[in-house]
Structures are given as C-alpha cells and as structure tokens.
C-alpha cells in the first residue's frame, strides 16, 4: 500500500441539534472517482455554516470523502472495493479495511444512511432499495416502509432491488468456476456495502446513483436528495416535495464478472437498456459470447472493470410497488 500521508484519516463533520431526533449519516466518494456526493455534501456544509440551513432535530454527520486514498487517485478504489465485504476487523491490512475499522462504528451510531454514488456509462439516476421485511438468513430486515418512503422522495424514478440475492448467486458461481479467486471474492459477505451493513446493524440506508460520473447534473441530484432526506425526517425546515407519480422497479437477477482484460461489451450499454433472451451482451477474450438468459435489462455496465470484478448486472422488472404514504 502506497497511500499518501494525507489519506491517513477520515474527516467528517457532525451537527447535533438540541432537540432529539433521527441520527442521519450522509456519505460521498465511497468510490474515489464518484464525486457528485462530495460536491453536494460540501455544498450542504456551506449552507449550514453560513446559516442558510439550520438543523432543528437530531444528529447529522456529513462525510464528503469516505475513501480518501481512492479519491486522491481519482480511481474507483485504493487497494480494493470499499463497498464490498464491508465490516470491521478484516485482517488483510488493505487500505479499505483500515477505513472500514473507522467507518463501521460511525454507521453503527446512526439510524439512517444516505450514500451518494455515480456510475460509469450513460443512464438516468436510480435508487438502490433493500429487501422487504423478512426474518431470513441472507438479509433480515424490518424497516421496509421507512426505506421505501425515503427512496420515493429522493427524486429518482428508477429503483433497483435484489442486490444481496444477485451477489449470493455471483459468489456461488465463483466458488464453482474460480475456486482459486481471491478469498474476498468467494466470501458470502462480498456483497455487503454501506447500505447492507447499515441494515445488518438495525438501521436502514439507501444508495442513490445520481448519474454518470461526469454528468454536470449529478451533484444537483445529490444535493436535492440530501435536502429531501432532511425534510422527510423532520430534521430541518425544508419543504418536502411530493414523490413522482410512478416508479419503475427492477430486480437484480445476476452479476457477471469480467474474467480477463480482453473481455469486451458488444456495444456501449447504458443502465436499463433492454435485452432479449439470447441477445449478446459481452464477448470473452476467447470469442465466447455472453448472452442474456431471458428477457431483461442491463444494469451497471462497466467496460473498464478490473478482471475478477463486476462487469455488468442483469435485471428484470419487479412486481414490487413503493409505499409512498
């Protein structure tokens, strides 16, 4: 690890109102090349420090840069992907594991998370939603209604669910086909990122994908989301805007890894581009085509993925509706 000295700490700013209320943490730059959240959080900090925004209830923690090493590199990750296998006490000593040792206790101390991201290729903003209430083994949860209300007010009309189920399938495939892969890629907890960790600790959290990395509108999407979250939770006197009249909800069915640096996508896919059963999505370096197993949609296509990491996701329409009351 060759992280520069100025990446040796996390810098969060916290505001505690004198009236009790929700405990909210907002994070940006979990991936170092995703800076819309950083810009929006810094704008919110300026609003608070100038008096334009006043916290009236609860506790607000703002973390503009969650992964300083990746941010300094202007790359997705430092040593590894911080938003996978997130937990304290990982023994590897990777930079992101050291970040997790600080970040996870901060998440533990809050009830609600808003995690702000962007994505590689074109497409509209979308929100990542957790599971329905359940007592299962994979991702037990009891805040479905609260999380759906939060998603409904963030401004995105597209919603994606099924993250952990897709990763469970991906890990099982790696164990069958690539048993010599790095241990973290074979870990059943590999899909756990900030929101999943938050749910595992009794809270709830939403990941908002605000647009393509360079989209000039993405910071505004992130800024509006912060303000609407504060409004929804009753933490500041900000008008709560009505949610969109309709949402399109997608369910992630699978995650497909890039196996080799020579793997290529057959076209410049954007998230939610439709694909028909049998249609080629990518081509392996040996010429083998990767085809859609059924009618569905491409999500998170990443033509610059690292070998062994996520190349694209496959989704179908979900029958889930959001509780927006």
TrEMBL record:
Cofactor(s) listed in the protein's UniProt record: Zn(2+)
Annotated keywords: Hydrolase, Metal-binding, Zinc
Keyword Hydrolase carried by entry: yes
Hydrolase among keywords: yes
Organism listed in the record: Candidimonas humi
PANTHER family cross-referenced by the UniProt entry: ASPARTOACYLASE (PTHR15162), SUCCINYLGLUTAMATE DESUCCINYLASE (PTHR15162:SF7)
Taxonomic superkingdom: Bacteria
Name used for this protein in its record: Succinylglutamate desuccinylase/aspartoacylase family protein
Domain Succinylglutamate desuccinylase/Aspartoacylase catalytic, first and last residues per copy: 20-128
């Amino acid at each position: 690890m060759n992280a520069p000295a100025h990446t040796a700490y996390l810098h969060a700013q916290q505001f505690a109102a004198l009236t009790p209320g929700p405990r909210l943490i907002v994070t940006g730059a979990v991936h170092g090349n995703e800076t819309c959240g950083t810009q929006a959080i810094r704008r919110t900090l300026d609003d608070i420090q100038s008096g334009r925004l006043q916290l009236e209830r609860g506790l607000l923690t703002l973390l503009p840069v969650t992964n300083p090493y990746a941010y300094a590199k202007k790359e997705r990750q430092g040593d590894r992907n911080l938003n996978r296998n997130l937990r304290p006490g990982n023994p590897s000593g990777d930079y992101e594991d050291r970040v997790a040792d600080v970040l996870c206790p901060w998440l533990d101390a809050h009830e609600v998370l808003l995690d702000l991201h962007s994505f590689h290729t074109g497409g509209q903003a979308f929100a990542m939603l957790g599971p329905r209430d359940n007592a299962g083994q994979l991702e037990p949860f009891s805040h479905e209604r609260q999380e759906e209300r939060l998603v409904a007010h963030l401004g995105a009309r597209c919603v994606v669910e099924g993250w952990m189920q897709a990763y469970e399938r991906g890990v099982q495939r790696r164990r069958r086909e690539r048993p010599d892969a790095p241990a973290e890629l074979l870990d059943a907890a590999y899909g756990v990122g900030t929101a999943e960790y938050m749910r595992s600790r009794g809270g709830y959290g939403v990941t908002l994908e605000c647009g393509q990395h360079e989209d000039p509108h993405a910071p505004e999407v992130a800024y509006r989301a912060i303000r609407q979250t504060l409004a929804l939770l009753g933490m500041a006197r900000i008008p709560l805007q009505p949610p969109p009249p309709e949402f399109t909800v997608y369910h992630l069915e699978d995650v497909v890894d890039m196996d080799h640096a020579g793997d290529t996508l057959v076209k410049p896919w954007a998230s939610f581009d439709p694909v028909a059963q049998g249609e080629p999505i990518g081509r392996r370096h040996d010429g083998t085509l990767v085809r859609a197993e059924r009618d569905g949609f491409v999500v998170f296509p990443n033509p610059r993925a690292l070998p062994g990491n996520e190349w694209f996701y496959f989704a179908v329409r979900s029958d889930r509706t959001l509780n927006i009351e």
